[in-house]
Hints:
- The protein has 135 residues and is mainly α.
- 82% of the residues lie in helices and 0% in strands.
- The protein contains 7 helices and no strands.
- It has helices at residues 4-17, 19-28, 34-48, 56-70, 73-86, 90-103, 106-134.
- The chain is globular.
Amino acid sequence: MGSLRYDTGMQVRRAVLGDAHVDRVEADKTAFDAPFQELITEAAWGHVWARPQLSPRERTIVTIALLAALGHDEEVAMHVRASANTGASKDDVCEALMHVAIYAGVPAANRAVKIVKQTFAEMDTEHTKMASEED
């Protein structure tokens, strides 16, 4: 049983990233990274993402811009995938990357654009596949 902040964080984390992602991370968790997982669940998800001042959509836009500016490619892709759960549109992400280009540099934005395009293409393919399987 975790703290209230941990429990809140886990709820927010699941809402943003999806159960499948969180279940995968939890299944792969070891004694080595358990303290780290607890930290990010409480601090990032239970404190920052749970704050009411910004919507999940707005937090996604800010997060993608920051991660792109810092060159954290895997995290950019993860949060682009999360946009499906937070309401951030492709246009929102594009605008965030325009800011990255101006404020963090064209090379950072260029790299992020490639990652975002690939991630959205994968998401579109997955959506199309799931829709055809339902028919």
